[in-house]
Write a structure and sequence with these properties.
31% of the residues lie in helices and 14% in strands. The chain is of the alpha+beta class. The protein has 3 domains: 1-62, no CATH class; 101-128, no CATH class; 133-176 and 187-210, no CATH class. The chain has a 3-stranded antiparallel β-sheet, with no helix packed on it. The chain is elongated and about 105 Å long.
Length: 221
Amino acid sequence: MPKNIKLADPDFHVPSSIDLLIGAEIFWQLLCIGQIKRSDEHPILQKTHFGWLITGKIVTSQNLRRSTHHCYASISNNELDNKLSQFWSTKNYSDRQPYTADEKVCEEHFLQTIQRNSQGRFIVKLPIKEGRLIQLGKSIAIKRFYAFERKLHRQSALKQEYSDFISEYLSLGHMRKIEDNHDMITPHYYLPHHAVMKHSSSTTKLRVVFDGSCKANSGVY
């Protein structure tokens, strides 16, 4: 090491914690004119505003032991063509299994009901198995509502919140009352629901949850 050199980190060769990370936007502003390289076996000394830095490659005994490996590969155009043909034959995705009966019905339903609205969104009617609609009913919904009604009688605040919600649903047109002479021959289904109270909420403390995944007595949903 030249005697007139003042290193930015005199203990650069001793592992220690990092003091400062410098980004590339100011790194080049720290460099000064001055660089020393004695030989190919020595690292480079670079002058900076912090002092001289030692950088570059350090030659060790491992670097001196070099070995050379030679590889040779040869293939003809015919062999390459055959290999490519075999590759594409195994990657042929055009052969697919035939649709099942339900998949065919879904595809036909999709093609018949798909449309695009004025906002550019695609709309598709939900597929329904018409033959199983008759198996739906209202027994589970009524059973759950009776249990929920007993809870309302015990909690007056919850009852008031729930009544206000039902009244708002009626006024907004989200639901309507079914008359006694309603045609019950057509397929129908009563969606079970229950109320959830969140006292910590600053706006709406009651939220009504509709259980759309509830199965009917027949196991249909």
